[in-house]
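Standup notes, protein team

Yesterday: finished cleaning the Spirosoma rhododendri set.
Today: Purine nucleoside phosphorylase structure.
Blockers: none.

Input for Purine nucleoside phosphorylase:
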Amino acid sequence: MLSYTPAEAQQLPLYRVPGLFTSIDGLIAAESTRHGGVSPAPFAALNLGINTADDPANVDENRLRFFSAIGTTEFGFASAHQVHGTAVLHVTEAGRYEGYDALMTNVSDLLIGVTVADCVPILIYDSGQRAVAAVHAGWRGTVGRIVQETITQMQQQFGTQPADCHIYIGTCIDQHAFDIGPEVATQFDASLLGTNPQTGRTCADLKRANMNLCLAMGVPASQIEVSPFSTVANNDDYFSYRAEQGQTGRMLAVIGLKNT
């Protein structure tokens, strides 16, 4: 249950900007919170997900508020109907594409983004070739190495070098809340597994798993930022599909290049 009143929630930040990206000219990157929107419970308040039972008019207003807050109302926006796979799409224009969990572009004034409510959002900026990517990595995408596939696709399409990549691994379910069964646990390296102290069940660290994949590709550790927040432990600020038993909203993690 949220500890904020609706009036107080309007004063809280609609989004956070990864510190890794704050000093990069011409780059816009943001991760929304659940604050500052118009949706009622259980989607309170800044629900940005169109595949929910929320009133579409609420989601439209919430998206307008979010895009206005980050200064991208004049940008095109590209997203996808995510399927928990590993397919990566090179996008050059706005639209909603079917069946992809990662988008990449080098087109200016085009924002790309992924929706999340426990899965890992990953934002990538290639400083060498001036290209960006947005990745949705649930446990299937993580064990399928979607972040590595995205960097590989950026190499082939743009000439991206891992050493030039700056990567934000965003807010998601934390290790101690991500209980998994044995059939899933066997797909993770043992070093990524732990035990939920409350349930005694095996759990996995999705943030560290994706960080390790980036490091293995040759991305410098100094160019990787991992969100300190958790959708479950910080459920007052972020939507969590698990913590709210599927009745909740969605956040957006977005990235784009300004036309300079």
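Follow-up from PR in the comments: Residues 81 and 98 are 5 Å apart (CA to CA).
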